[in-house]
Design a protein that fits this description.
The protein is α/β, with parallel strands linked by helices and 264 residues long. α5 crosses α7. The chain has a six-stranded mixed beta sheet, with helices on both faces. It is 41% helix and 25% strand. The chain is built from eleven helices and ten strands.
Length: 264
């Protein structure tokens, strides 16, 4: 990796079932994400989008293995496939944040939002207790929670769906990572909340220079939010490029079908 703006480069990544001779779940996927860009991975259910994202994080479900390929992060470039489990644990949270599809299941229900952000800051930063408290309020306010001190004292189930998603984003960006991965972050929310969260992602992208890796089936959202995109079908990336170019003139039949279905 020679471009200082490159944040993530995936090269020929293949994910297989650990046992059996089934077709790869992800087959020879390659793409790159630059600093300050929003990259969207789109495709139908079962296309391999989420598996690819979890492979990048080295968080594959049991029964799946990363069979080949490279995952290079940052500049001058570090191959995550050669990192130890402890190195990856330190990398996650500090250099990359994850926004899960359903934050109610991702948060620990026994601890407050503030407690859970505190644990991330304790693990990945040298901030003092006072500085950690300030940082918690900063990120909760940055994500649009109007009463950050109250939100910090609440448990996940006490927040609405939209507020929980904002709190999850606050947790993901608390350590100022270079990359944010968001897996279908608006799929369970109503249209109004979806629009507000899209504004938030764009704000974080522009103000923090944050690279965002967005996994979505919502081509309307991708068209309004993302800069670059890749289309995935049956484990393979069949088309990728600038969003405006693909939306205007899709080259692959499957991409055209997805766009036509989104217009129905």
């Amino acid at each position: 990796m020679t471009d200082p703006d490159l944040v993530l480069q995936v090269r020929d990544l293949t994910v297989n079932l650990a046992a059996g001779d089934a077709a790869p779940i992800v087959s020879a996927a390659s793409f790159a994400i630059n600093r300050g860009r929003i990259f969207a991975l789109v495709g139908g259910s079962g296309s391999g989008k989420t598996t690819l994202a979890y492979a990048v994080l080295s968080l594959l479900q049991p029964g799946l293995v990363r069979a080949s390929g490279k995952i290079v992060f940052g500049y001058p470039g570090r191959d995550l496939c050669s990192c130890s489990a402890e190195e990856l644990r330190l990398w996650r949270g500090r250099e990359v944040g994850m926004v899960f599809q359903e934050p109610l299941h991702a948060f620990n229900p026994l601890f407050t939002i503030g407690d859970q952000i505190t644990e991330v800051l304790k693990h990945h930063t040298d901030l003092s207790p006072r500085q950690r408290g300030q940082r918690i309020l900063e990120v909760l306010q940055l994500t649009g929670l109007t009463q950050p001190s109250r939100a910090a004292r609440q448990f996940p189930h006490q927040l609405s769906g939209g507020m929980r998603q904002r709190a999850m984003i606050a947790l993901a960006i608390a350590c100022q990572p270079r990359l944010l991965i968001a897996d279908e972050p608006t799929s369970s929310l109503d249209v109004t909340v979806q629009a507000r969260l899209m504004e938030l992602f764009r704000k974080l992208n522009q103000e923090m220079g944050l690279a965002i890796f967005l996994i979505s089936h919502d081509l309307g959202m991708v068209g309004r939010l993302a800069d670059d995109m890749a289309v995935m079908r049956q484990g393979r990336i069949v088309e990728q490029g600038a969003v405006k170019n693909i939306m205007a003139k899709p080259a692959h039949t499957y991409t055209r079908q997805l766009l036509e279905a989104a217009l129905i």
